[in-house]
Amino acid sequence: MTNDSHGLTRRHFLAALGAGAATLGLAGCGGGGGDAQDAAGDDGGAGVSGKLIRVAAFTNNHAAGPLYWPQFAPEGLEVEVTTLTSGTDMNRALEADDLDFAIFGIVNGFIESEQGLGSKIVAMGARQGAGLIVPRTSEIADVAGLAGRRIALKGPAFQLLVLYTLLDEAGLDPASDVEIVPVEYNDQPTALERGDVDAFMGSEPNASRSVASGAGRRLVNIYTTPVGELNSTIWASPRMVADEPDLVRAAVAMQRDAANHLTPSGSNDPEVWRDLVVDQFGLEEDVYRELITNCGAVWELSEFWVDQAKAAGAKMAELGLLQAEPDYDDLIRTEFMPA
């Protein structure tokens, strides 16, 4: 799959999504993982007493590790958590020193790094959290069956990289063999039910909501591509990385402890997740039961996850979303991991 064969450039893709979303008007988690979940080592508490860190997470989202950072903060460290709806807004706040840490996806992070923003990845954040959904009664049996179909997609994001790779593996050209329809995540289940699209590549909890309602089903396991299960990562501001290594280590340790709380030894704790998504977020019990099979909190920048980040960067360069692959050694900062 090349840029020429798919006709996808960063400018054309972003313009198409923006225009499509405006004109269409339609109403965006355990599984594998490979995270060691090793809580041994530096507890991240040195040199941080009396300081404040500010961290952002998405509103009512499965990538929820930072919501638990105050619970695991070292003595004397104050943690201020805020929720936002845009990873780009988080990244800009990191650049402006209005935030110290944030959890968001690598796709917008890689694009904005190439544009000059200086935040760095210092820990993993969340795995999975997406789904390729078709109508429950559809005759579509596999990805090849999507030929000639309309697929709702919001991007650029993790979902785009996975979908384009799956289509390529099935011998389908996204530019000519299917129709990609820009639809906001929250509007995708409704678009599918109304028949406006034949499938959607969405985020959680919308994918689980569609399945739990009986309207949709998961077409295939989408985590078999080189991009894997990598959903989101912890990003640190330029100032944190340059001037506050102790705070960065403390942030990594809090994400480790939060991940071990939510997803101990790689398996989601049902009661912790029920409290989060049912009691706190207000999701229905049947949606919770579906979602908990397709998400998870992670923290360690192991080779398993770094390889998936590199695969994502390579795919983005191939698709023209990046001019070139990132400098991974500069962007993915493993030196803050516990010894």
Task: Please characterize this protein's 3D structure.
This protein is an alpha/beta fold and 339 residues long. It has two domains: 3-30 and 130-224, Periplasmic binding protein-like II (D-Maltodextrin-Binding Protein, domain 2, 3-Layer(aba) Sandwich), CATH 3.40.190; 52-128 and 230-336, D-Maltodextrin-Binding Protein, domain 2 (3-Layer(aba) Sandwich). Helices cover 37% and strands 17% of the residues. The protein contains 13 helices and eleven strands. The protein has helices at residues 3-6, 10-24, 87-95, 106-114, 158-169, 188-194, 206-212, 238-243, 245-262, 270-280, 285-291, 303-319, 328-331; strands at 52-58, 78-84, 101-104, 120-128, 130-135, 150-153, 179-182, 199-203, 216-218, 230-236, 295-297. The strands form two sheets. A six-stranded mixed beta sheet has the order 2-1-3-10-4-11. Helix 7 packs across helix 11. The protein is globular, with a radius of gyration of 19 Å. Mean pLDDT is 89; it is low at 1-41.
